[in-house]
Write a structure and sequence with these properties.
By secondary structure, this protein is an alpha/beta fold. It is globular and about 50 Å long. The protein has 10 helices and 11 strands. Strand 2, helix 2 and strand 3 form a beta-alpha-beta unit. Strands 1-11-8-7-5-6 form a 6-stranded parallel beta sheet, with helices on both faces. The protein has a 3-stranded parallel beta sheet with strand order 3-2-4, sandwiched between helices. It has a two-stranded antiparallel sheet with strand order 9-10. It has 2 domains: 87 residues, Leucine Dehydrogenase, chain A, domain 1 (Rossmann fold, 3-Layer(aba) Sandwich); 128 residues, NAD(P)-binding Rossmann-like Domain (Rossmann fold). The structure holds nicotinamide-adenine-dinucleotide. The site of nicotinamide-adenine-dinucleotide has 24 residues, from helix 10.
Amino acid sequence: MAANIIDGKAFAATVREKVAGHVTRLKEEHGITPGLAVVLVGEDPASQVYVRSKGKQTVEVGMNSFEHKLDAATSEADLLALIDQLNNDPTVHGILVQMPLPKHLDEDLVINSIAPQKDVDGFHISNVGLLATGQKSMVPCTPLGCLMMLRDYHGSLSGMDAVVIGRSNIVGKPMAQLLLGESCTVTIAHSRTKDLPDVVRRADIVVAAVGRPEMVPADWIKEGATVIDVGINRIERDGKKKLVGDVDFAPCAERAGAITPVPGGVGPMTIACLLANTVTACCRANNLAEPEGLTA
Ligand code: NAD
């Protein structure tokens, strides 16, 4: 049986449309324009591409985009001073500091200096704690995007067996918390997991967030399972550069019930969820009803 392909590109477009609708309402009914500030330190080429794309999409949905590009040698004190200024700026509802930072800057310190209610990446320790205890928080964008796709496909996830491969703070752990919040039975697998194939074979939902090209073969996938592939791996095959996920897509698609492709699956959802988080943060800051369907 060939799986349903979950089209993240199309889904992300519907999320952006919803966000744009809320932005219009905030402007027309309340005179408020949501604003997202993105801080980039240094000249990492991949980070520059991400920041450009985030800025472009922010403007496309009608929000204000504030870009702060700092020199690679910027001191920690200067970066923290900028974050403090953004924390206190009422036109800024979301703040994102693009990672990775140059080595001399303490990433944890920087993230935890962002006001939690403006932490649209959801990495601040307060938001991590709120998510872990099932309270209202800012949810990391990539796992939020995965959750939206799973909810859209299944409706209720209650009682399903979910395996998350990868235990990073930005994907694996928050993904597991979200699935637990949906009443799944959750297993977090990682590089030291014994008999990973056996663990994955039990799963109704597999989320792969490892960063190893096509490491999940078809015979690990339970017939009819839903497979969410977070991995983004650049490889060269037959002399051509290619983007592949952590899942061996074509054979896995023969066994799965539904599967996300790479590219065009989880990737496009991440920025869409950043925009969703910014509009949510703006509504919360102004004591307005939160947009439905854009939060966890
Ligand atoms: P990470 O390197 O921080 O974490 C990888 C995790 O995989 C670790 O917890 C590790 O224990 C686990 N792991 C490593 N080897 C393993 C193995 N052989 N078996 C089982 N588990 C193993 O990575 P990350 O930041 O969580 O990102 C994971 C992947 O997701 C990367 O390819 C990254 O590019 C991609 N990613 C995509 C998006 C997106 O928007 N689609 C966002 C973030 C990350």
